Amino acid sequence: xxxxxxxxxxxxxxxxxxxxxxxxxxxxxxxxxxxxxxxxxxxxxxxxxxxxxxxxxxxxxxxxxxxxxxxxxxxxxxxxxxxxxxxxxxxxxxxxxxxxxx
Length: 102
Description:
- The chain is 67% helix and 0% strand.
- The chain has 3 helices and no strands.
- The model has no long low-confidence stretch (mean pLDDT 80).
């Protein structure tokens, strides 16, 4: 049984959140080393980087996983690439299995 759309969205959000946490940790650490922690402290600054990055990555990954997993209707003319390739190479004879296309 295929997972539901909500399950796919949740899985995309979890994957994006995990990637966002890792990226936020890397960029937050680099920012701490370069600029220091300021008045808030290093843990507060690093957590802001990590949570902000996790939220944005998770949001866009959840949307992207739902958009990508939508069912697409089959194309009505599946022989079109064959006809285009025949025309490109100058072959005027049509070799289609579907008699309706001729």
